Amino acid sequence: MGLETFIAERKQDKELLVMAHVVCGYPSFDENMQELEIMAEAGVDLVELQFPFSEPSADGPLFVRANEQSLKAGTTVDQCFEFMKLVSERFSFKVLMMGYYNTVFKMGEDIFVQRLKEAGGVGYILPDLPIEESAKLHSLSEQAGVEPVILMTPTSSDKRLAQLGVASRGMVYAVARKGVTGSKTSMGDDVIGLIDRCRQHTNVPVGVGFGIASKADMDFLRGSADLAIVGTAALKTWEESGADGLRAFFAELLA
Amino acid sequence: MDIFDFSDGREGYYGEYGGVFLPEILHATIEELLECFRECKADPKFWQDYVTLLQNYSGRPTPVTHLENLSRELGGAQIYVKRDDLNHTGSHKVNNVMGQGLLTQRLGKKRVIAETGAGQHGFATATMAAKFGFDCKIYMGSVDVARQRPNVFWMENLGAEVIAVEDGQKTLKDAVNECMRDWVTNMADTHYILGTACGPHPFPEMVSWFQSIIGLEAREQMLTQTGRLPDRVYACVGGGSNAMGLFQGFFDDENIELIGCEAGGEGVGSYMHSARLAYDDASVGVAQGYKTYFLQNDEGNMSETHSVAAGLDYIGVNPIFSHLHDLGKVRFEAATDAEVKETLKLTMRTEGLIPALESTHGFVVALKEAATMAKDEIVLVNMSGRGDKDIFTIADALDDAKWKSFIGGKADQYRAEKK
Fold first, then answer.
1. Interface residues from chain A to B (CB-CB < 8 Å)
2. B311 and B329 share a domain?
3. Domain-embedded: residue B159
4. For residue A175, which residues of chain B lie inside 8 Å, CB to CB?
5. In chain B, fewer beta carbons within 10 Å around the N or the C end?
6. Residue B413 lies in a domain
7. Is A59 designated active site?
8. Do residues B66 and B225 touch, judged by C-beta distance below 8 A?
9. How far is B375 from chain A (nearest CA, A)?
């Protein structure tokens, strides 16, 4: 089942879905699995598995350190795909690969798409790969039935949003504000305006990410966005208050 | 040959290298920059203003010096040196920075950020920002901050804020990542003054254009001073901006050999170096906004790099050089840390010149080859920066007892003052 169909099905029961995030191998694969169990129990709908990269230039401090520590612990691409396979077989949420383009480029785009498919991934997010450089990867993805998640941003002009809209498949990721992952976003008219602008240029579901951390953010997005994308806040909670904290975090978020 | 004519190929690509690989949020910023740069490049008055600024502020044209003593001692080719060390702030970095400063004015932006390795680019950017009245933040790996304190001192006193980057290897590449993070947040009022001919298009072209002033001058000076063009031209290559600058003066001359000199660090097979093209350890990848040869592992994660010269200690090389390397238009060699130290001693004693550790890499290869050439042949080397900034590193390398005792005395004095 493709990403778009999956989101449509899940949306029959609830208005706002949640996509969560873990950095593979940080703090460890075992702890990743514990985090994912909690996410699954809470009813998370999609999960990004970030493949660690040495130059994560779109990420904020917490994820930068997570990428670095994971690589230092010896995390490999093989391990990430094996983990993805385990996760996608075990849980009812769908899994996407998130990472940087060099990881894909080095293994070869065709091999990447094939391995993603075999591991049960439904799509991928590569924040440093613009659509101008994506033609071959997108066509390989289409053949294999996995979907690239395009990012739309507050600085994108209407002309640009139209180009991005044409390339969008599965869902788009609306970046709520300028900056890197992790800092707070004040949810306001800007965000609603961005979602509206995105919808003018694409028919696929719209997820909103960057700085989503609370039930208040969820309440704000309900009715406008299709998905809330939660990254840094969950990892921060895990680091500060472990499994119980994370359970409480998602329980509140999805209440 | 015009490597910047993209009419037959893809904009911003040199062969298969270059391009723009940036987060979507920067798309509009890069478009705006490209448009502004195209206007500047097409406007003869912009170039004229640029040259005048460098003449009046930085002492251009920098001279070409004939190293008579060294040429005699080696008994081979006549060695000439382009003296970009005589620029204000002590290196060629100021050329690019002044150019981008003028461009920042055109963009109407009030704040500049820059990465720096050795600190020369940061120093030049802080200087330009003081002169132009821009807010300025410099990102520098904490390892580099520790080994280049004198430049940090000057940057801060010129009014810039210097941020020591603690991520990754804490060197130049990590400072570039941190600049990207600042830029994706503050692009509305901020221009990123990238210091070398790397990164996303149009930076490789833009930095090369500003640095081409080195080659334009040098070509004319060689003709005036020697009545002909050199046989071989050498320059050190970190990102490759000083080399691109000098080489562009000779791109159309079929019989001139161009030699890029990379940081061999501890040598072939040591995996402690920054030689992307001279050694076989690098492969093609995409990082920091562009596609080129990077020192990286099979999975695309960047390797640790090393050089005695902080300014050459970098994972990638400008995409234009990757292409010219493929075409055989530029030859790449490497100089090791040990060779650099020996050559530096030689140029100081024989010619009274103190090249920066970075620039000394060019001297190593040039002197080695000049010794094997005929006396009526001519080589030209770019002295892209001066070495007095490296006094701590050089004093360590030379194990200078008097310097150590001086620093020890200073430390005692500061400690006493603290009490």
1. 52-58, 60, 64-65, 68, 71, 76-77, 100-103, 105-107, 127-130, 132-133, 150-157, 160, 164, 175, 178-180
2. yes
3. yes
4. 24-25
5. C
6. no
7. yes
8. yes
9. 48
Residue of B16, B17, B20, B21 to mutate for A, most A C-beta atoms under 10 A: B21
Per DSSP, the three-state class of A86 is helix
b/e code A54-68 from CB counts within 10 Å (16+ = b)? bbbbbbbebbbbbbb
* Catalytic residue set of B: 93, 115, 384
| Cβ-based neighbour number of residue A249 at 10 Å | 24
Residue B24 contacts A, CB cutoff 8 Å? yes
Residue of B nearest to A154 (CA): B25
Q: Which domain holds residue B188?
A: 20-56+92-203
Q: How many domains does chain B fold into?
A: 2
Residues A112 and A138: their CA atoms lie apart, in Å, by 12
Shared-domain flag, residues B265 and B226: yes
Same domain, B146 and B184: yes
* Residues B177 and B233 both lie in one domain: no
CATH code for the domain in which residue B38 is found? 3.40.50.1100
Q: Nearest 5°: phi and psi at B303?
A: -85, 165
CA distance readout (Å), B374 to B189, B258, B379: 55, 18, 11
Within a domain: B402: no
Do B27 and B135 fall within a single domain? Answer: yes
Same domain, residue pair B163 and B243 = no
Kindly list the structural domains of chain A, giving each domain's residue range(s) and its CATH number in brackets, ordered by start.
16-253 (3.20.20.70)
Helices assigned H by DSSP within B355-400: 357-370, 391-397
| Phi, psi values for residue A32, rounded to 5° | -55, -45
Kindly identify which residue of chain B lies nearest to residue A64, measuring between CA atoms.
B167
Tens of pLDDT along chain B (419 residues) come to: 789 999 888 999 999 999 999 999 999 999 999 999 999 999 999 999 999 999 999 999 999 999 999 999 999 999 999 999 999 999 999 999 999 999 999 999 999 999 998 899 999 999 999 999 999 999 999 999 988 888 999 999 999 999 999 988 898 999 999 999 999 999 999 999 999 999 999 999 999 999 999 999 999 999 999 999 999 999 999 999 999 999 999 999 989 999 999 999 999 999 999 999 999 999 999 999 999 999 999 999 999 999 999 899 999 999 999 999 999 999 999 999 999 999 999 999 999 999 999 999 999 999 999 999 999 999 999 999 999 878 888 898 888 999 999 999 999 999 999 88
Asked whether residue B228 is assigned to any structural domain, the reply reads yes
Question: Taking a C-beta distance cutoff of 8 angstroms, is the pair B349, B73 a contact?
Answer: no
Find how far residue B127's CA is from the centre of its chain. 17
Using an 8 Å CB-CB cutoff, list chain B residues near A69.
Answer: none
Determine the residue of chain B that is closest to A58 in CA distance: B181
Identify whether residues B217 and B109 lie together within a single domain. no
Question: Which of B22, B301, B302 lies closest to A128 in CB terms?
Answer: B22
Planar angle of CA B95, B101, B105, nearest 5 degrees: 150
User: A101, B180: Cβ pair inside 8 Å?
Assistant: no
**Nearest-10 crossing angle of helices B27-42, B203-226:** 30
Please list every residue in chain B whose beta carbon sits closer than 8 Å to the beta carbon of residue A151.
Answer: 23-25
Indicate if B196 and B343 belong to the same structural domain.
no
